[in-house]
Amino acid sequence: MIEIQSLTKKYVTKKQTVIGVDNVSITIEKGEVYGIVGYSGAGKSTLLRCLNLIEKPTKGRVLVDGIDLTSLSEKQLRRARQKIGMIFQQFSLISSKTVFENVAFALKAAGHSKPYIQKRVLELLDIVGLQDKKDIYPAHLSGGQKQRVGIARALANNPTVLLCDEATSALDPTTTKSILQLLKKINQELGITIVLITHEMEVVKDLCHRVAVMQEGRLIEEGPAYEIFSNPREPLTKQFITSILDFDLPETLIKESKGTIIKIQFEGKTAGDAILSDTLQKFPIKGNILHGKIEYIQNDPLGILIIEFSGESKEVAAAIEYIKERTGSLEVIAHAA
Ligand SMILES: Nc1ncnc2c1ncn2[C@@H]1O[C@H](COP(=O)(O)OP(=O)(O)OP(=O)(O)O)[C@@H](O)[C@H]1O
């Protein structure tokens, strides 16, 4: 378990004081994948770097499995850090070392014997699917392969926590998917807690159990990923999820519509229900689907449907009420002219 308690990080220079992280408290459970999102400058990297004390907090505490990292000596901290792996957007591999040597480096630093290192590196390369690349230099690897080496190196000393600093931001969408799959496997099969920062909600959608939203150093919203996607409270959170779920109808379509246009959000089990066909059977109205989309937040469906209803206004109103009672939310976008 990771406990971030009232953490503040200020950067003080002669000219000014910049607050990187402003009084943030978060508890991350063991085995969880926890996402931190926010725009550039929100304080995500600073917060992540405070978790292994690469960055020293100005105030507050960071406890990993009950140990207060801020109270440790340098020597104790080096030891504690071995249990906190980290991967980076730009991979941070040593270009003059082969894949094998890059991974072995972390094990040598921890003082392991040669035979153990030999065995452990091959084991790690097997986990990340790169055994056949062990004698290759980083320059000859693709971005995805470089990140796999980064992951193998981060896992070398059997960490309990893996910190991911925009781990897929430099990768194309297909490679991103495969790295996210690998991180999911590492979380599920090795039970490693993952804390990741990202500005991509796709990453959160695929991987994160819980998510925090940061703005100007502060934590403005936090909760289970499904709740954040289905019921965002803060305007910034709404902006973030729009990229995944929302859909704006063209203005002309709304203007020219002769019916009532509604947007329905389906949550959880109701997403699969035949609410629309029920409604159309029950009420003498016509329904024209203008847009529909279902996203899976991990394994749970969340959908939106935009429909134009036409018919007698009393019947349309009754149909809307009927749907409201059965779904997560309903919004009337345009009334019948
Ligand atoms: N070493 C530093 N010295 C001074 N100010 C810093 C330093 N590192 C970060 N900051 C400032 O702290 C604030 C938060 O930066 P941080 O890099 O944590 O944000 P971020 O959300 O990770 O952004 P990005 O996605 O661009 O990396 C910014 O205002 C930044 O300018």
Overall description:
The structure is a single chain. By secondary structure, the chain is α/β, with parallel strands linked by helices. The chain has two domains: 2-242, P-loop containing nucleotide triphosphate hydrolases (Rossmann fold, 3-Layer(aba) Sandwich), CATH 3.40.50.300; 251-334, ACT domain (Alpha-Beta Plaits, 2-Layer Sandwich). The chain has helices at 44-51, 74-81, 99-109, 114-127, 143-155, 173-190, 201-207, 225-230, 235-242, 251-256, 275-282, 313-324, and strands at residues 2-12, 17-28, 33-37, 59-64, 67-68, 84-88, 161-165, 193-198, 210-215, 218-224, 260-267, 286-297, 300-310, 329-334. The chain has a six-stranded mixed beta sheet, sandwiched between helices. Strands 2-1-4-5 form a four-stranded antiparallel beta sheet, covered by helices on one side. Strand 9 and strand 10 (218-224) form a beta hairpin. The relative contact order is 0.12. The chain binds adenosine-5'-triphosphate. Residues 11, 18, 20, 38, 40-46 line the site of adenosine-5'-triphosphate (ATP).
Could you give a quick summary of the protein structure above?
The protein is of the alpha/beta class and 337 residues long. Helices cover 35% and strands 30% of the residues. The chain has helices at residues 44-51, 74-81, 99-109, 114-127, 143-155, 173-190, 201-207, 225-230, 235-242, 251-256, 275-282, 313-324; strands at residues 2-12, 17-28, 33-37, 59-64, 67-68, 84-88, 161-165, 193-198, 210-215, 218-224, 260-267, 286-297, 300-310, 329-334.
